[in-house]
Amino acid sequence: MLTIPGIKTKAAVIGETPETYIFYGHHTVGKTHIAADAAKTYQDQGKSVLYVVTPGEEPGATLSQFGLGEIITDVNKASEVDELIKAITGKVDVVIVDSLKGLNRLIMDKLCGKDKMPQDSKGWVPAHEAFSSAVTAFKAAAPVTIFLCPADRSTDSFVDPDGKKPNVISCDLPGRMSTAIRATVSYMAYVESSFDQKTKVFTRSASFVPDNNILTLARGLRQPMTEPIVFTGFDGQWGQITTALEEQRNAS
Question: What is the pTM of this model?
Answer without folding.
Answer: 0.90
